[in-house]
Amino acid sequence: DADVTQTPRNRITKTGKRIMLECSQTKGHDRMYWYRQDPGLGLRLIYYSFDVKDINKGEISDGYSVSRQAQAKFSLSLESAIPNQTALYFCATSDRLTNQPQHFGDGTRLSIL
Amino acid sequence: LAKTTQPISMDSYEGQEVNITCSHNNIATNDYITWYQQFPSQGPRFIIQGYKTKVTNEVASLFIPADRKSSTLSLPRVSLSDTAVYYCLVGGGHQAGTALIFGKGTTLSVSS
Description:
heterodimer; A: mainly beta; B: five-stranded mixed sheet; globular
């Protein structure tokens, strides 16, 4: 089983819809991250959480929100999806000894029409 | 947040040693340097991490000069399966309050 599981793996939806991407991990790590990847732009940090009570904005948090329901779960929501949020989304985790992501999920490919 | 600069792309042949250098002139005292590998349609995979001097594991070596303003990932005897994008990431350890931003990475193409 994967250490970091993202669901769904693929999603196609329409502009204006609310979407939730889910991430769960079995690493026992305190720290979790959401990144977005666009062609030619590398990975950009959306939100990160260093523990259940800690939520921080990354460099591109506008239009997104997150929820850290438990140590093992970190969800990303698009409140009202727009086409330029079409991208590949990655969840990652790390232990408390580092704030550099160590384990990534396989990504969610999101298309907004 | 430390900014990193890497070559956009590199080409190599099977069996050669590949060195990818990353510049990080504004690295902070408590920053670590981490390298990742990413294949298409997969999440990045942690390769190696270091703070100073040299670190070696089963897949790569990481060379960090004394001033820590750059680092070099060394892949010995690459194979076709090493074709991927490689990211250098610089940031603090557990004391830091901020997470990290990836650069655009280096696309390594290995040919036979």
